[in-house]
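Predict the assembly for these two chains.
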Amino acid sequence: GAGVSQSPRYKVAKRGQDVALRCDPISGHVSLFWYQQALGQGPEFLTYFQNEAQLDKSGLPSDRFFAERPEGSVSTLKIQRTQQEDSAVYLCASSLDGSPNTEAFFGQGTRLTVV
Amino acid sequence: AQSVTQLGSHVSVSEGALVLLRCNYSSSVPPYLFWYVQYPNQGLQLLLKYTSAATLVKGINGFEAEFKKSETSFHLTKPSAHMSDAAEYFCAVSRHQNTGNQFYFGTGTSLTVIP
């Protein structure tokens, strides 16, 4: 596709419910990032993939958060037993390669509200 | 550790006035620096990036930024604000680590343009 696509755009979950957020990166992009953006804050790093390999998951806030990218393209961020503090916008980004001077292209995000 | 600091979480300017959004970075090595813009309910869009080729970087929508190593700054400017510039602006730094590439974002500056 032309850009990074995320679905759903909005998700309301009851506390304790599991959710899965999907990211379709730009075709051919090697690197994929997940960020969490709380209201009024900058994006906070969650995890990073290079192709199918999850090279960095240091930003995942707890073991309830899990991300995968099994075939090196589409990625899913799963949150188990959602809590109210998980409410945020989850942003996915992809970049052509792993070079630090290569910009990341962002999707529109998934706004998760836990009630 | 790599980080960026954005001074001023809210900036208001009159339409036609100079826009100045401040960003300072901390880095022990030359960084790769980016400015992104986020419109309401949208993902982040790249405005410009510094990759050491030139200290004055021109971006989209009339924005530019100057890398000043002596001041560890990368401030974003635009000579004349337009109503459509009202948005959230994020400064970011990237660095390649053993675990791959990662972007670190500032907390953002909300720009209001007064007619």
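Chain B touches chain A through 26 residues (CB under 8 Å). DSSP finds no helices and twelve strands in chain B.
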